[in-house]
Amino acid sequence: MKKVKTTFFCQDCGHQSPKWLGKCPSCGGWNRFVEEELRTHDRSALSDIQFDESPLSIEKIRADEKERITTGIAEVDRVLGGGIVNGSVTLVGGDPGIGKSTLLLQVLQNLAQKGLHVLYVSGEESAKQIKLRGKRVGAVSENLFILVEIDLDNIVKHIKGLLPGAVVIDSIQTVFSSELASAPGSVGQVRESSARLILLSKKTGIPIFLVGHVTKDGSIAGPKVLEHMVDTVLYFEGDSGHAYRIVRAMKNRFGPTNEIGVFEMRDNGLNEVSNPSAFFLTERPEGAAGSVVVPSMEGTRPILIEIQSLVSPTTLGMPRRTTIGVDHNRVSLIAAVMDKICGFRLGGHDIFINVAGGMKVDEPAIDLGIVSSMASSFLDRPVDAGTVVFGEVGLTGEVRGISQMETRIKEAARMGFRRCILPHVHSRSETPKGKIECISVSSIKKLLEYLF
Ligand code: TYD
Ligand code: MG
Known about the structure:
By secondary structure, this protein is of the alpha/beta class. The chain has helices at residues 74-80, 100-113, 127-137, 152-162, 187-204, 224-227, 276-281, 328-342, 367-379, 405-414, 427-430, 444-451, and strands at 6-10, 16-17, 33-37, 89-94, 118-122, 144-148, 166-170, 208-213, 232-237, 244-252, 260-266, 269-272, 291-298, 301-313, 321-324, 349-355, 387-389, 392-393, 399-400, 419-423, 437-441.
């Protein structure tokens, strides 16, 4: 009998080790190693997909940008970079209950309405449950096929039989290949199943969406190992406590990354939010100290967000620095600059910073917003409600230029803001004519002089 070779896999990142380890040297996780069968790929396993092509001159290969399939949901098309590319594999990740199944069912329904045959493979819910959800979101097309199956061989067989226009596998953690002894959801199974589905997609040109779970307790393999294998990775942000959902493109071989789609969860599924700036500013407390609006770029689109600060004297020996939605280190750095340059005494104060609406922003342009908001809360003097600020802050307190200033100013003007405080360098040429007044500042001292 052939001896089965095994090795130990980190269930989070897929790192392999011949021996069991307590701590993963790659991702640092503790107690994540599980023994799994190691497979050397023989040709028979992939025999259902033909492998005999010869090299082609690039000139002879036909490919067209227009070959994308639009889903009809503008926010989904945007994160995908303009629609679904044939033969692409997209991983959709996110917390349980955030809306992955709902969104993908809506996407399939839209494709089915266009006359495409589409297939929704579920290993988590029964056909009846999917039908019930389908009724809520209006997915009732006769071109939408449902398959409740977890055996990879059967799934591949049905895809090849039906040759659908698009496939959703919900979720990749439930799929298992009978050729591996390990349980569904283990790294080995996830990798094996997705490798075969990816190959199938590339060979047949059928776009496939894989749903991947991310669980805190880690009983299911995280989709981290998958991220390298697929073409596009979409992640759901936001939490089930809020109604909004943000879908972000973390990786995209066919379009810009960091592009976001904004949705709102209602009783008829996920609805697009076409004006996110208005959406994120609806609950803004105008005239309150500590609240400042910043035009931030998310992918190619400007979105106005509100930064809120609470700076209050500390009762502890070590003042607290708590941030939600912005980088913690960045805030500490900015607080230190404000201390040193402007003579604030933030060392004796707790600082809490929050991006309203639960957005995560990760760009230097919001630095100036953080400064204004912290100063406003510290001094207990509100920033004028019709003003937006943006710019990067350097270690000497200088304000640095940032990209796409004009787009940001335009968005602020569109949303009815009257004044924009921006870095000094670009201000001459890029100030658009119009109703918005642009004030350029060269240092945070100037900024604070102007604001308060
Ligand atoms: P679901 O798509 O099942 O999440 P996932 O597949 O990511 O685990 O979403 C389930 C949540 O969405 C659940 O909390 C109920 C809510 N929901 C609505 O609010 N309205 C709807 O129309 C639907 C279908 C779901
Ligand atoms: Mg689901």
